[in-house]
Amino acid sequence: MILPAVLRRPGKYSIADPLFVEERRPVLVTRRLRKGAEAGDIVLVRVRERDRSLRGEVVRVIGSSDDPRNVYDALFASINTSRTFSPKVKEAAELVSVEDVGERQDLRHLPTVTIDGEDAKDFDDAISVERASFGYRVWVHIADVTHFVRPGSPLDREAARRGNSVYLPGIVAPMLPARLSEDLCSLRPNVERAAVTVEMDVAESGEVRGRKAYRSLIVSDARLTYERVDAFLRGEGTVEQSELVKAAFDLSRRLKSRAAVRGKLELGGREPDYELDPEGVPIMAHVRRSTPARELIEELMVLANESVARMVRGKPGAVFRVHERPDEESMEELEERLRAIGVQDEPTPETLGNIAARAKSDAVNYMILRSLPRAYYAPSSPGHFGLALEDYTHFTSPIRRYADVLVHRALLDDDGPEDVSAVAAGISEREYRSMICERTADEYTLMWLMRDRVGDVLEGTIVSTTNFGLFVEMETGATGLVHVSKLPGRWDVEPNGVVLSNDQIGASYRIGDRVLVDLLDVLPLMKRAELRIVKRI
């Protein structure tokens, strides 16, 4: 096996400590097998076991562990993906680029826009919205990836192996080569593109009265950004296709209200967003929250995904996005935890949204989120609890999710896999590993950005308690540990799991408490920050 590792201790023998993988044992590497790597370098090591210890040979020197870009490459390697593709796969992408797009419905006349982030490189969805006597006519256009990625082809096998694109700060390991993801299957403005369009007639209430899907030829009239659209919706500035944007926004508000009525679970979100220097190194982090422009696109994509889920029901090869209801045991555990922090409401699957709305607390949202089962892909559709929908799938991102490729094939009656259950389980596992990789990158990056702040006093919120201390999320977004050795006397976690208390002095800390902490040390590569509580806030 090949593992990412950081090289320690120069000399005749070096130790390579595995990074971001389950294997924790050090790997012994002799000088002649180091390939010139120095102490502190991140390397890929081919490992073999001998006499219950690990011996290794460096197969690639990635570079200094002080550079975040090298750490990101190690993270990609930890889940067996990368930013690059084999010559065979790249050649296959070039070969399909000359293929004719075939017979399609011509929608080039239809006003169409994409709305994405400022730094987006691939544009796999576009929208067209018109007001109509019955409400709205909506077209959601998705890049026709399956026209270029045929079942069993080298492109298809590589996409299936990767499962999805993986996004780390300022860098991506794509599911498909750039010739497709950033060119042929990217709905760039003023360029004819092959798409799959879902056309929907939507009533004023937000109910879909009619739906159909077909292969199309489109031209995006404008590449809009969330920032520009948000400014326009605030009455600041203009955007291309303003009537389209206004109609889409009005419909998205109706869809959002309809989702709230049916019981969609809204827990907010705190995703980090990074500023990069010209070399692609993070220099600052911000918290990215939902905005009207982001919600506009989200609501229309959910609408399209639900419509497609209904159209592919019973079709061979289809997969659905499944999110099961939390079970009774999970709700009982959640109730105990909520009461420990002063929330007296009895949680049930139906009341979670109301509890979150009343609490307006990231700590409460985090507890609720932990009580929910993980979403996954399956060949049947028992429903999506979080969205409160009976039918749901992923259709809108075939550039970056293999599940969507399968759904496109089922929708268009193309060939699907023989064992859909096995493929669905495989891409679910790949998605989970990718999520852990992305989360680890955020943890590392937020700590790396704090490397010069040792000694600073920061505000924070307790987000977790354990027998060995408190985890505090600081104002920077990074989470550090207050070890029990930094607290006076003996401290124990109460049975509810959310309170750390000292009975001798009658003191306690619980999840959600606000504190000032002193940053004692930070070790980004170990994802570890050591803290000491200064005082409560």
Protein model, in words:
This protein has 537 residues and is α+β, with helices and mostly antiparallel strands. 30% of the residues lie in helices and 31% in strands. The chain has 13 helices and 26 strands. The strands form eight sheets. It has a five-stranded mixed β-barrel with strand order 1-2-3-5-4. β12 (192-203) and β13 (208-219) form a beta hairpin. The two termini are 49 Å apart. The model has no long low-confidence stretch (mean pLDDT 95).
Task: Summarize the helices and strands and which ones pair or pack.
Elements: E1 2-8, E2 13-18, E3 27-30, E4 41-50, E5 53-64, H1 68-78, H2 87-96, E6 105-106, E7 113-116, E8 125-132, E9 135-143, H3 145-148, H4 154-162, E10 166-168, E11 171-173, H5 178-184, E12 192-203, E13 208-219, E14 222-225, H6 226-233, H7 242-262, E15 271-276, E16 282-288, H8 292-312, E17 320-322, H9 328-340, H10 352-359, H11 362-371, E18 376-378, H12 402-411, H13 420-448, E19 457-466, E20 469-474, E21 479-483, E22 492-493, E23 499-502, E24 507-510, E25 514-523, E26 528-536
Helix pairs in contact: 1-13, 7-8, 9-11
Task: Sum up the structure in keywords.
537 residues; alpha+beta; five-stranded mixed beta barrel; five-stranded mixed beta sheet
- Based on CA atoms alone, the radius of gyration comes out at 25 Å
Q: Could you give the distance between the termini?
A: 49 Å
Tell me, rounded to a whole number, the average pLDDT.
95
Helix content: 25-40%
**Structural class by secondary-structure content:** alpha+beta
Uncertain ranges:
none
The profile of the biggest β sheet is: 5 strands, mixed, barrel
